[in-house]
Design a protein that fits this description.
It is a single chain. By secondary structure, the chain is of the alpha/beta class. 41% of the residues lie in helices and 18% in strands. Strands 5-4-3-6-7-9-8 form a seven-stranded mixed sheet, sandwiched between helices. Strands 1-2 form a two-stranded antiparallel sheet. A hairpin with a 2-residue loop joins β1 and β2. It is elongated and about 70 Å long.
């Protein structure tokens, strides 16, 4: 490719990794991308097969010395600049990389699934801290990050992941095959189901008399608010993973009504909720027979995870 101006006045093969990173952050900042320095760094690492220690050692060296093969050097630089352009158009960083880290594990993601968020790790923490049961159900699993993390770190006899989206289930299966050791992979099951539609069928097939734990990070954004979200979410995340109905509570109503039919007495429910939905979701759970409700907040102090016990 031809020589190109970069911030700092360097040209062509004389450019260094540090200068490429500066160029990337500048471009993303101009595009109003949140956290442009971090995103440019991750894209640079991806394109040049780097980690943080390697970057620190090589950041001042000219690309021509790091990659003597001109074709490779140009391909890597072109790939970085292509990713920058796509990120500047607000395609999510996780989709560009093809993965994201969640609860110490690296999950593959795509436009078919909601990219795992750090806040959702609280849902896993809550379930791990309190659950001692044998059988668990993860509704609206998406990438599988919640259920797979629970099975990886916890002790469950079985873990069922469900989603209405077939592409999402394929991604969850891919993640399970990559991340779970064989003995735990054998305890994981996937089922395409619209919430509880096919759960009774699964229970009969497996001889399960109810679950000890039901958890979910369901869609909970109010339909009218989706378009006002950042472009990364409103334009690139799957709409069915966001849309919680007119008031954001559609899935919570369904879960509160149906979960008691599939929980053993003393079984627990753990739900991620919108920051302003705790009161409404608590009322739904209480009216459905749940008690001992517990609310946990995320790192920014917002309500995030609601759990309760079903006494039967």
């Amino acid at each position: 490719m031809g020589e190109r101006e970069v911030p700092g006045g360097e040209r062509g093969s004389a450019v260094t990794l540090r200068e490429l990173l500066r160029e990337g952050a500048f471009r993303l900042r101009e595009a109003l991308v949140p956290d442009p320095d971090y995103d440019a760094r991750q894209l640079l690492f991806h394109s040049f097969s780097l980690d943080a220690p390697a970057y620190l050692m090589k950041s001042s060296a000219e690309l021509s010395s790091l990659f003597p093969d001109e074709r490779e050097r140009e391909e890597r630089t072109a790939d970085f600049r292509r990713l920058l352009s796509e990120r500047a158009s607000r395609i999510p960083l996780q989709q560009l990389l093809g993965y994201t880290d969640f609860f110490g594990l690296r999950f593959r993601v795509s436009e078919a699934v909601l990219s795992p968020r750090q806040d959702t790790e609280i849902l896993v923490e809550e379930a791990l801290a309190e659950s001692t049961g044998k059988h668990a159900l993860d509704l609206c699993t998406g990438s599988g990050c919640v259920g797979i993390s629970l099975l990886y770190y916890g002790e469950f006899e079985s873990m069922l992941l469900t989603d209405l989206s077939a592409p999402a289930l394929r991604k969850a299966e891919e993640n399970a095959e990559r991340l779970l050791p064989p003995e735990k992979r054998a305890r994981l099951f996937l089922l395409r189901s619209d919430l509880f539609q096919r759960i009774s069928e699964y229970e009969r097939e497996k001889g399960i008399q109810g679950f000890d734990l039901i958890l979910s990070n369901p869609p909970y954004i109010r339909r009218g608010e989706i378009e006002s979200l950042e472009p990364e979410v409103s334009e690139h995340e799957p709409r069915m993973a966001l849309d919680g109905g007119e008031d954001g509570l559609f899935f919570y109503r369904e879960i509160a009504r149906e979960a008691p039919k599939h929980l053993r007495p003393g079984g627990r429910i753990c739900l991620e909720i919108g920051f302003d939905e705790a009161e409404e979701v608590s009322a739904l759970l209480l009216s459905a027979g749940f008690s001992e409700l517990s609310l946990r907040r995320d790192l920014s102090g917002k309500d995030r995870v609601l759990s309760g016990i079903f006494r039967g």
